[in-house]
Amino acid sequence: MKIRTRFAPSPTGYMHLGNLRTALYTYLWARKNGGTFILRIEDTDQEREVAGAVDAIYQSLKIAGLSHDEGPDVGGEYGPYVQSERKDMYLPYAKQLIEKGKAYYCFCSRERLDRCRAEAEAKGETFKYDKHCLGLSKEEIQKKLDAGEPYVIRQNVPTEGKAGFDDVIYGHVEVDCSTLDDNVLIKADGLPTYNFANVIDDHTMGITHVMRGNEYLSSAPKYNLMYEAFGWEPPVYIHLTPVMTRDVQKDENGQPVTGEDGQPVEIVRKLSKRKGDPTFEDLLSRGYLVEAVINYMVLLGWSPKGEEEFFTLDELEKLFDLEGLSKSPSIFDMQKLNWFNAEYIRRLTPEKYREYAGPWLEKVLPEGFDLGRLCELLQGRTEFFGQLPEMVAFLAKMPDFPNDFYVNKKQKSTVESARDALNSVLPVLEGIGDWSEENLHDTVLDFIAGRGMKNGQMLWPLRIAVSGQMNTPGGAFEIMYLLGKDETLSRLKTSMERLG
Ligand code: GLU
């Protein structure tokens, strides 16, 4: 049997990281088995549709390298691949279910449904449709249809017994039918609901493996009832555990809630753009490497057999398996992602690093700046490219800084020793003609040795005086070189004036 998997996003906005991970696993499972990876756009909920979201899906999949074999833009034998374009396909199937007694027309008005819902809520019960229209006779139904009364088609879920299905991660899942609602299959606008379309589409598109978020776990027994009614083989179900993140609990005003110990209360919640978590697009625009994000995301919910953590997409296409999928929710951790990304950045060739970093650096640094040298200094300490403008801002403009920065026990530097050191080294620097890093290094170190000082006593204040920062990419020589002679001396003099 040829494996066919599908990624079935709804065009409601961005590529959430959870969605990206679903797409990734779905893609990998198809590739691993020499199967077919299908993109299906689920746009039957037109109220939730966001303009441009479909393009964003294509774009994200393309950037991620998850190329689909069939889909709206590439075609295929099972099209159309956009649900709204398939809209005429669903009603005949719904009618088949009606004939089998597994679905029925419902003409209930919104007012009636609202009333029933309010009554249920008043009793503290969850609303379930009361099968009111199941009692209509054939003639009554026909009369209403002929009169053009609006209707929906509902699934007729048995009131007794159990419904269940098998899931690769959750095992056999079974629920009492009495807990299930008669969901709408075809809406008043003639479009199918997700609950119906997913069954019809997965079957008619020959999908063998359905991977999706576990929010569909509770509905899947109902889907299986439909597969049974049609006499169709259900696909293999793989409901993925969610991607969570750690956060602090907030009250209605968005203020952190503190516990008895006065500390913020930590919670684990689902990833959410609204709560400030990044989407795939956000990460890319902050200068994360696609390969690193993919690598990190694949491991959020899947473990490879060995110890290795770094994988290319090609390698994953061979390695990925269903056994490694996690049975418990995974935690998205920005720091871990940063670590991964930094590791990927370190492994870039200097040329590639420069290519990525260049545009970020050019935003803040003047023309003519030695970006090549700066990049060498930055590569080992970059977590994501978007942090570079801030990291190098001090090179473009001297920041304000307190004189306390000169104090450093380990380097035996105090405000007084810094003042002396800078006073003594200024004429030496002024006298330097060849402003190369090497010459700066040799000249200043000779001078230090001649005065019998500790290196740190000179180099610590010097670096602070020209950078205004405790931490810098590179030391005093590198920074003085990058700034150039005029800028270095001008900064040094200003800082010395501030030291008094
Ligand atoms: N359209 C659904 C979503 O975006 C997909 C669910 C599925 O894969 O069946 O959540």
Write up what this structure looks like.
The chain has 500 residues and is α/β, with parallel strands linked by helices. Among the domains are: 87-240, Rossmann fold (3-Layer(aba) Sandwich), CATH 3.40.50.620; 348-396; 403-499, Arc Repressor Mutant, subunit A, CATH 1.10.10. Helix content is 44%, strand content 11%. The protein contains 19 helices and twelve strands. It has helices at residues 17-32, 53-64, 87-99, 110-122, 138-146, 194-204, 220-230, 280-285, 290-299, 313-319, 334-346, 350-362, 371-379, 388-396, 415-430, 437-451, 455-467, 476-483, 485-499, and strands spanning 4-7, 36-39, 103-106, 152-155, 162-167, 171-176, 184-186, 209-213, 236-240, 243-248, 266-270, 330-332. Strands 3-4-7 form a three-stranded antiparallel beta sheet. A three-stranded mixed beta sheet has the order 11-10-12. Strands 1-2 form a two-stranded parallel ribbon. Helix 1 (17-32) links the parallel strand 1 (4-7) and strand 2 (36-39). The protein is elongated, with a radius of gyration of 32 Å. The mean pLDDT is 95. The chain binds glutamic acid.
Within CATH, the superfamily of the domain at 87-240 carries the name HUPs
| Residue fraction in strands | 5-15%
CATH fold assignment of the domain at 87-240: Rossmann fold
Principal-axes geometry comes out as: elongated
N/C terminus separation: 82 Å
Rg of Cα set = 32 Å
Condensed summary:
With 500 residues, the protein is α/β, with parallel strands linked by helices. Helix content is 44%, strand content 11%. The protein contains 19 helices and twelve strands.
